Amino acid sequence: MYEEFFSMKHTPFTNRIPTDCLYLSDAVSEGLGRLCYAADQQLFAVVTAEVGCGKTTLIRRLTGSLDPERYLVLYLSDSQLTPRWFYNGLLQQLGTETKFYRGDAKLSLHQQLEYIRQAKHKKVVTIVDEAHLLKRETLEEIRFMLNYQMDSLNPMALILVGQNELWDKLNLQAYAAVRQRIDLKCELPAFDRSQTEAYLHAHLAYANGNEEIFTDKAMDEIYKYSAGSARAINKVCTHSLLSAAQRNKKLIDDHMVHMVIESELP
Question: Which of 163-182 are b and which e, b meaning 16 or more Cβ less than 10 Å from the residue's Cβ?
Fold first, then answer.
């Protein structure tokens, strides 16, 4: 309802924004460059950030940046991912029959990856989301998966994406072998105050709305509440826009944002 009130053509604070319209912070831009390099060189990379701080944006931008004529992107997101389902999940996405035994599934996946590389001349990029929830057995199996042809060639690029606790886990001695196998590391910090404002302006511009809807003090309140988390920014901005439309207010100040935070948000 607020889109019509503010003469917007699109919804500004949503996860459905096209990848080329997403706000690109310096950290995400740098991470995108690193992951594109990892995709090209078939490396093992790890992306970490706190909740709502840009992991999904980075992965969406990466997927949209890779030429589908040269790359095949596979995506897994399962907190209970076992080694067998790691292999079979990828086989399913490749349109290949799954296997009951882990060894058979692993062999079949290697064969498919080799076929894609040799016959289709494509590089496979596998993204494993929510990786901070993976158990040690699965992380170890991923390491074994990459030990291919006497460690001279990775069968695919592998990108683990998770919350910061993923690095806490990998820094344990028990995961030393996995940690040593990692080629690239990307850590995404929360937005600072100026980036929070830039994020708001970018998303309002995408909506074709007035970029001056929020006052400077309103943005201060939004930053204070969100702590630079894009997800929290989306939430407070959406509620503020709804509240403003219901009250027939074209300008959102700090008092309205504070009221929304106090009465509508946890």
Answer: beebeebbeeeebeebbebb
Torsion, CA 140, CA 142, CA 144, CA 149, rounded to 10: -160
Residues 184 and 200 in one domain: no
Does residue 38 share a domain with residue 136?
Answer: yes
Helices (DSSP H) in the chain: which residue ranges? 2-5, 26-41, 55-65, 83-93, 102-118, 136-146, 165-170, 176-181, 193-206, 216-226, 230-246, 254-264
Q: Give the chain's mean pLDDT.
A: 91
141 inside domain = yes
Classify residue 170 by its DSSP letter: H
Check which CATH number belongs to the domain holding 235 and give it. Answer: 1.10.8
Whole-angstrom Cα distance, residue 156 to residue 113? 7
User: For residue 151, what pLDDT band results from cuts at 50, 70 and 90?
Assistant: low
